[in-house]
Amino acid sequence: MCAVGDPFIRQALSLQGLQNSCLTGYVETQHHHKWYISDGSAIFQVENKLYKVHAALLANISVTLQEMFAMPSGTEHSCEGTRDDRPIVLHPPVTSQKLDYFLEWFYSQMSQTEVAVSDTTPRTSAQTMLYPSIQQSYEDSRLDL
What is the value of pTM for the model shown? Predict the structure, then answer.
């Protein structure tokens, strides 16, 4: 179960047997059944799903993600993306279906070979579909600071 700050919410979740769930804002979220990876280092929320993935690997393929992960993080307890109750929230047009498709492609590439995507590497449909969405979501969140 995630670390929700309010002890009453934690107790209510516990009593209801909602394992691997969390309240982020007012949205109840669930760990993604496949892409909440135990040794991952970055937690994203898309719709009502939490994804925990490997930030260092993702940063190697995208300048936008490099910049996002390089932003000053403050303390571990307040850092966005390090805990279930403080995920990096990705907004539309990113959807859980698009992120699932992208992560399936990304991790399959990692398991086949150690490939670093560069500007000269042809982009697959997964990259073409998701990168602009993540970049726009990231840039929109920077404007809110």
Answer: 0.62
